[in-house]
Specification:
The complex is a heterodimer of chains A (515) and B (492).
Chain A (H helix, E strand, L loop, with lengths): L4 H17 L6 H25 L8 E6 L7 E5 L1 H20 L8 H20 L3 H10 L1 H11 L4 H30 L4 H6 L4 H18 L8 H8 L2 H26 L1 H6 L1 H20 L4 H20 L4 H32 L10 H4 L1 H15 L5 H16 L1 H26 L6 H4 L6 H19 L2 H18 L32
Antiparallel strand pairs in A: 1-2
Chain B lengths: L2 H7 L1 H20 L4 H25 L7 E2 L4 E2 L2 H25 L13 H17 L4 H19 L6 H32 L4 H7 L6 H18 L7 H8 L2 H26 L4 H24 L4 H22 L2 H26 L18 H4 L1 H14 L6 H15 L3 H27 L12 H14 L7 H15 L4
Antiparallel strand pairs in B: 1-2
The chains are: A mainly alpha (515), B mainly alpha (492).
Chain lengths: 515, 492
């Protein structure tokens, strides 16, 4: 395909961002319009991208490469994994703009510009095919996110923005040094080539650790997660949606794109390290979530727990684990984003995130309660919702590698049900203890427009995950074939049976009669 | 080498000299009324002199043809690159000066003095000589011409106490540094029997004697003073804070380029055979500059002081490139210098635009609170400059760190690179404090004054270069820097 669709997808929001910056102080309405138009146009391009993506075709599609810079090249291209994550980003973006429609009243132009820049960078990160181009997009996201938290955030926004910025910066600079070493050794910064390159095992250890420093902070894994609750709580609603929906996926994407294929031996060596951190994360952050009194903080901690199941699935070294991890990432992007939107809806009305200040919302906000319930169930992983498919696959994957890890992570799912249902009971059920909460009106058309698309996709992914798995299947198979040789030892005692002589449902056929 | 060919080599310097002398006379007869005209003339001379550098820069100049005056001067690609940067910085500093000196910011002595452009001319002439020095005598000549002009520039606001203090401090410490340098040079002369770089290098072959080692260390220390690298950096914050802002802008750009270029030339051409003797010194200085530059800046309230520490921090990164001691490192260093000069010009121009209604200049954090609301363009350009100085992609400042660390890692100094890059995160703290104050805090609303067109043009121009668009410059920039760095390693 000759039309540079990936570049176009980045240029559209970029143009929107620059326009938004210049609408001036009184151009709030114009900025909102521009931002919504730009994100919808990008989403339309994304749909075109998906429609034109050839499942089972070449591994890398829509490739573009221009020699614009010295030292690295402007090379874009996607496989199924990138495609799905790009779709997630462009799908959530218009919803974020809608979520900020009324709640952001000061410096609207700059706010919208920051979000549109963010979209450019997210698409770029997932589409980059050059190591350094990836780093530039990956790291550049700090600037708009720092501004979003710092300017439009809550009371303790300054602390949260500093913590977010310095934590993530420190994580990624070491990765940059590793990238230099890799390009010097392999002689290229082309990601597809590097994915096939075999680094010496002892070098892999250091490289893996350097990349881990960056991705573990982004995911975030326990104990590198402490920036997340602060950043989530202080960020405006749409900021939390983007953080939870897409930015956390950068870490998982990093593992699946870099750590696993490029350093398979080191990844296997460190697999138990990752498992232990993930097991602690699942149990510990779930327990922490259980005692939160702030809704956003509760969901933030639940994100850490869910992402731990992603990392477990990734390092399970089998197809189920990898597919499950990818599906959890997509599902968590939608569901936690939607949960933050649910918090945002009632926060806009009452301006508090304290759980105690609500109660009995299903009486005065029935539609809201339905959506909230759906997303709560999806977060728990109820069959029929998107959460179930991913968690099931991921746990099935890890069960083949270690039944202990599977056991503990499944306990996390039970705890997940506990804190989510407990949250839901306190907010939506029970009596209407607070008068002001009881007086809140149900969701308005704008909020319907935010909730319905996410709910539809959550159900779609729960009922027919094949649509989302199909583009990724070939890429995950390639990855699995590449890394399976160095898989960590499995505790599953698989005895190979002898094949039956005939199929189990074979019917003896004596050559007579009709078919 | 015949005399005419030598004179042809130094045409730009001859033009600067002639212009400096003529404009000095004009200043003497015309007085301060002629200041504006003199500034324009000086900028034009820089421009013309700079234009002549473009041709040889592109074709590349090295080898015996570049030696002039019997080996006293060497006008190779490296010198040309440095000179081009110096002239660019000088033009910028001339352009912003009238707006500063003709306003209330200049205090009692309102009105630009006619000597200012002339002094800039002479300082730049001195730097031109410094960067093309091929002999310790030439080196010292250029260095002192530059320094003497700079001392006067620092205290050009005679009735302003801070400016006078800055001038005095700069003079005393600068003279001390010159003395140390001179002492080192005399030791080297005594122990090797020559003052030209080639014969000193030849004399240093084999194991270093104690006297030679002392000479080397004294020379390095003197040079470290001039580039304001830790542990010889103490004068920088005071001088930067006290000097008038256009002069600070000049100090943080042109003399830095000249001194770094000079240091590179000395370590590669004179001590090129003794890499192990100086490499660890440069490594220590580089790391110490990065760390102290970052830590020192954290507590600062005054923006000029903060940028002084930032320049120390940046020198650390430049020295990283030097410490690599190969062509790639030297080339990375030159790319870094270019980007650093652009970022410095941009940030100081933004500082020069922080004016009150009556034209007085603001220079503390308290004054720029909420600048994004009151003066969004200045705030956004300053944001670009600060994130760029912090090395956050996609701004051009990232590219400068990119090339440096690429060279360091390729030279197998991975641990060194890891420590340096981790220390750079400390620096990010105060750069993002700039952004925090301008964007997150409630507006102080004191910055209300208008600025001239020259300031706006320079502000926007530097911001555009530093923005991601600047990456389009990188192929040609790298090409020129590679040629310049290669010239440094050809021993004639």
């Amino acid at each position: 395909m000759d039309f540079p669709i990936l570049t176009t997808m980045m240029l559209v929001p970029l143009a929107g961002a620059i326009l938004c910056l210049f609408v001036g102080k009184d151009g709030g309405g114009a900025a909102r319009g521009i931002a919504l138009a730009a994100t919808l146009a990008t989403f339309a391009l994304g749909v075109m991208l998906w429609a034109n993506y050839e499942i089972g075709g070449a591994q890398w599609q829509f490739q573009e490469s221009y020699d614009l810079f010295a030292g690295f090249s402007y090379a874009l291209g996607i496989d199924g994994i990138s495609l799905m994550l790009i779709m997630l980003s462009v799908f959530l973006m218009p919803i974020c703009i809608l979520a900020s429609w009324e709640s952001i009243q000061k410096r609207v132009g700059e706010y919208m510009a920051a979000f549109l820049f963010m979209e450019v960078l997210m698409i770029g990160t997932f589409a980059a095919q050059d190591l350094f181009l990836f780093y530039i997009f990956f790291e550049a996201g700090l600037i708009p996110m720092y501004l979003i938290i710092g300017v439009w955030g809550g009371d303790n926004r300054i602390y949260a923005s500093y913590k977010f910025f310095l934590y993530t910066l420190f994580g990624s600079v070491l990765m940059l040094i590793a990238m230099f070493w890799m390009t010097a050794t392999a002689g290229t910064s082309d990601i597809p080539t590097l994915m096939q390159y075999d680094f010496a095992p002892e070098a892999q250890t250091w490289l893996w650790l350097a990349f881990f420093a960056s991705f573990a902070v982004k995911v975030p894994m326990w104990p590198f997660h402490t920036w997340l609750p602060d950043a989530h709580v202080q960020a405006p609603t749409a900021g939390s949606v983007i953080l939870a929906g897409v930015l956390l996926k950068l870490g998982g994407y990093g593992f699946i794109r870099f750590s696993l294929p490029m350093f398979p031996d080191a990844s296997a060596d460190f697999a138990w390290f990752v498992f232990i951190l993930s097991m602690i994360a699942v149990i510990y952050t779930s327990l922490v979530a259980l005692v939160q009194s702030d809704m956003k903080k509760l969901i933030a901690y639940s994100s850490v727990a869910h992402m731990a199941i992603v990392t477990v699935g990734l390092f399970a070294y089998n197809v189920q684990g990898l597919e499950g991890a990818m599906l959890i990432m997509l599902s968590h992007g939608l569901v936690s984003g939607a949960l933050f939107l649910c918090v945002g809806v009632i926060y806009d009305r009452l301006h508090t995130r304290e759980i105690e200040r609500y109660g009995g919302l299903s009486i005065n906000m029935p539609y809201y309660a339905v959506f909230f319930l759906l997303f709560t169930m999806a977060s728990i992983g109820l069959p029929g919702t998107s959460g179930f498919v991913g968690e099931f696959l991921s746990l099935a994957g890890i069960y083949q590698t270690s039944s202990l890890v599977a056991l503990i992570c499944t306990t996390g799912i039970i705890l997940g049900a506990a804190y989510m249902l407990y949250l839901y009971r306190r907010v939506a059920f029970g009596g209407q203890v607070n008068e002001d909460a009881a007086a809140m009106g149900d969701i308005r058309p704008r909020e319907w427009a935010m909730m319905v698309p996410i709910a539809a996709v959550v159900l779609w992914m729960g009922v027919y995950p094949e649509s989302f798995l199909a583009p990724m299947r070939a890429d995950i198979a390639v990855l699995d074939a590449h890394i399976s040789a160095s898989a960590p030892a499995s505790d599953a005692d698989l005895a190979a049976g002898s094949p039956r002589e005939a199929a189990a449902n074979a019917v003896e056929f004596d050559g007579e009669g009709e078919h | 080498m015949d005399f005419v060919a030598s004179l042809v080599l130094v045409t730009p310097e001859l033009q600067l000299t002639a212009a400096g002398l003529v404009l000095l006379l004009v200043a003497a007869w015309g007085g301060d009324k002629a200041a504006r005209g003199i500034a324009i003339a000086a900028a034009a001379v820089f421009f013309v002199a700079g234009l002549q550098l473009i041709g040889p820069l592109h074709t590349g100049a090295d080898g015996p043809d570049t030696l002039g005056f019997g080996g006293l001067l060497k006008v190779d690609s490296f010198a040309l690159f440095a000179k081009a940067l110096i002239y660019l910085a000088a033009i910028a500093c001339l352009v912003v000066a009238p707006g500063f000196f003709n306003s209330a910011a200049a205090g009692e002595e309102r009105g630009m003095r006619a000597e200012y452009p002339v002094l800039i001319l002479f300082a730049a002439l001195g730097m031109s000589i410094m960067v093309s020095a091929n002999d310790f005598m030439t080196l010292y000549l250029g260095l002192e011409l530059n320094s003497l002009a700079s001392y006067v520039l620092a205290s050009i606001l005679r009735k302003d106490q801070r400016s006078a203090e800055a001038g005095l401090k700069y003079f005393v410490l600068g003279a001390l540094a010159s003395g140390i340098l001179l002492y080192g040079m005399s030791l080297l002369y005594g122990f090797t029997g020559g003052t030209d770089f080639a014969s000193v290098r030849a004399g240093l072959e084999g194991d270093l004697s104690l006297g030679q080692l002392f000479g080397l260390i004294f020379v390095m220390a003197g040079l470290a003073f001039k580039i304001a690298a830790v542990p010889f950096h103490m004068w920088t914050p005071d001088v930067y804070e006290g000097a008038p802002t256009p002069v600070t802008m000049f100090f943080s750009t042109a003399p830095k380029v000249a001194a770094v270029a000079l240091t590179a030339r000395v370590v590669f051409e004179v001590f090129g055979g003794q890499v192990s003797a100086w490499q660890q010194i440069v490594m220590f200085t580089a790391l110490a500059s990065i760390v102290f530059g970052a830590l020192g800046a954290i507590g600062q309230e005054n923006l000029k002081r903060l940028l002084a520490y930032s320049s120390i921090n940046n020198i650390g990164f430049i020295l990283l490139g030097l410490a690599v001691a190969n062509v790639a490192g030297a080339s990375a260093m030159l790319v870094y210098l270019f980007i650093y000069v652009v970022m410095s010009l941009g940030s100081f121009t933004a500082l020069l635009m922080l004016r009150s209604e009556d034209g007085d200049l603001y220079e503390t954090f308290g004054d720029i609170r909420g600048l994004a609301v009151t003066r969004p363009v200045i705030a956004w350009t300053l944001l670009i400059q600060m994130f760029s100085l912090a090395g956050i992609p996609p701004l051009l400042g990232f590219y400068s760190k990119f090339v440096i660390f690429d060279a360091v890692v390729k030279a197998d100094l991975v641990a060194f690179a890891a420590i340096a890059i981790a220390a750079s995160v400390i620096g990010a703290f105060y750069y993002i404090k700039f952004v925090k104050v301008m964007f997150f805090d409630e507006p102080a609303g004191v910055v209300t004054g208008k600025s001239g067109t020259a300031h706006w043009v320079l502000l926007i121009l530097t911001a555009v270069i530093v923005s991601p668009l600047g990456y389009l410059l990188t192929p040609s920039l790298t090409d020129l820097a590679d040629k310049a760095a290669a010239a440094l390693f050809i021993t004639v």
